[in-house]
């Protein structure tokens, strides 16, 4: 079993207010966490775009992916190369400016049911996001954590040692209320891999986080960021307007 890395005991930074993504009630609003400069750009953004992907998933608007190989070799995610033009992605359908759903990615993974990408004309694909099937009947979070821990072992074979996010602040923070604390936003659970030397058109950061649909049902969201994410975010802000 791989050592899953250092625990990150601080929550991710709040989502940027400039994002155009609608917020879902997958996690009722909690008091804003304190920002830290050391927090991940991936985990802070996955909870924005991920909510939009979850909206489509729970509404049944994204087709489930077929079962196949692991999601990434460091240069792509689910067979989608970082920097790829959207026109080259078969079946890509826009559902929000800059965001496209994939009916079936080139390399699906059975651990993920839905896949979407963020892409712009001058950057190509710069973010790939995926959501797992819903895990139900799990108030203590034992099943979602096991699924994510196993995923982290597999991802570590490609990306190396991760950092682990496992924190609870301000809630009951007891095992029996794990799901309730996750739903209120007091608890965070996930993993992060950073590949600082990766080129722009490669995977530079990967984040996996648990998201509550209720106090006993969860999904995990995965986000794969390219090295060109900063330019991608600038294009996103342009779409949002002043």
Main beta-sheet strand count, sense and barrel state? 9 strands, mixed
How many distinct helices?
4
In angstroms, what is the radius of gyration?
Answer: 17 Å
Order of helices and strands: EHEEEEEEHEHEEEH
Uncertain stretches? 1-49, 58-70
- Class inferred from helices and paired strands: alpha+beta
Number of domains: 1
Give me the side-by-side strand order of the main sheet. Answer: 1-8-9-10-11-7-6-5-4
Beta-strand content bin: 25-35%
* Overall outline: globular
Mean pLDDT: 74
Helix percent band? 10-25%
**Head-to-tail CA distance between termini:** 49 Å
The total beta strand count reads 11
Task: Give a written overview of the molecule.
The protein is globular, with a radius of gyration of 17 Å. It is built from 4 helices and 11 strands. It has one domain. It has helices at 41-59, 142-159, 178-184, 229-240; strands at residues 7-8, 76-77, 80-81, 92-96, 99-102, 114-120, 124-131, 163-168, 187-194, 203-212, 218-226. By secondary structure, the chain is α+β, with helices and mostly antiparallel strands. The chain has a 9-stranded mixed beta sheet, sandwiched between helices. Strands 2-3 form a two-stranded antiparallel sheet.
SSE order and pairing:
Blueprint: E1 7-8, H1 41-59, E2 76-77, E3 80-81, E4 92-96, E5 99-102, E6 114-120, E7 124-131, H2 142-159, E8 163-168, H3 178-184, E9 187-194, E10 203-212, E11 218-226, H4 229-240
Parallel strand pairs: 1-8
Antiparallel strand pairs: 2-3, 4-5, 5-6, 6-7, 7-11, 8-9, 9-10, 10-11
């Amino acid at each position: 079993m791989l050592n899953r890395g250092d625990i990150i005991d601080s929550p991710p930074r709040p989502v940027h207010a400039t994002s155009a993504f609608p917020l879902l009630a997958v996690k009722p609003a909690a008091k804003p966490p304190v920002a830290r400069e050391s927090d991940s750009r991936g985990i802070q953004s996955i909870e924005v775009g991920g909510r939009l992907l979850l909206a489509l998933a729970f509404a049944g608007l994204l087709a489930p992916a077929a079962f196949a190989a692991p999601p990434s070799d460091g240069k792509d995610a689910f067979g989608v190369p970082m920097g790829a033009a959207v026109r080259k992605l078969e079946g890509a359908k826009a559902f929000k400016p800059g965001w496209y759903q994939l009916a079936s990615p080139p390399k699906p993974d059975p651990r993920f049911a839905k896949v979407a990408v963020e892409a712009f004309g001058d950057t190509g694909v710069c973010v790939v996001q995926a959501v797992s099937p819903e895990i139900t009947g799990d108030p203590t979070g034992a099943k979602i954590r096991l699924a994510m821990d196993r995923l982290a072992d597999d991802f570590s074979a490609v990306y190396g040692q991760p950092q682990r996010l496992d924190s609870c602040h301000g809630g009951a923070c007891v095992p029996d209320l794990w799901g309730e604390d996750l739903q209120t936003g007091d608890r965070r659970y996930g993993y992060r891999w950073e590949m600082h030397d990766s080129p722009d058109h490669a995977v530079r950061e990967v984040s996996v986080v648990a998201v509550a649909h209720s106090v006993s049902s969860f999904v995990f969201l995965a986000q794969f960021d390219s090295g060109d994410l900063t330019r991608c975010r600038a294009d996103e802000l342009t779409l949002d307007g002043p």
